[in-house]
């Protein structure tokens, strides 16, 4: 497989943060080691310098945090904080199949943010395999906007 090529003009356009002002989201998909996480954090850093609130979470650790928050009563507060953040970076999506709790968590996060705030998701898994990872076609349809 040929090495990934970064479209410099596209990256510079994204660094202008207009997509965040317009409440769009971004998927960074590709094999391990091509710099998806680095690009997501660079865009997050630029957004922060443009006075946007930014939060970065590795998705597996965020699911663990949400499970703990559910147990100690902080769950609504954590979800509210995620919903209010101008740019939420969800790094390292997949390839493990989500359990019921994780599916509900992801759905809550995405629905709270849809057309209200911007999200970057990085993944090694092609989008056409996400239905298998989500594991529930109804929720997968809702998450994919279908």
TrEMBL record:
It comes from the Bacteria. SMART domains: AAA. Signal peptide: none annotated. SUPFAM superfamilies: P-loop containing nucleoside triphosphate hydrolases (SSF52540). Residues 22-145 form the AAA+ ATPase domain. This is DNA replication protein DnaC. It comes from Rhizobium mongolense.
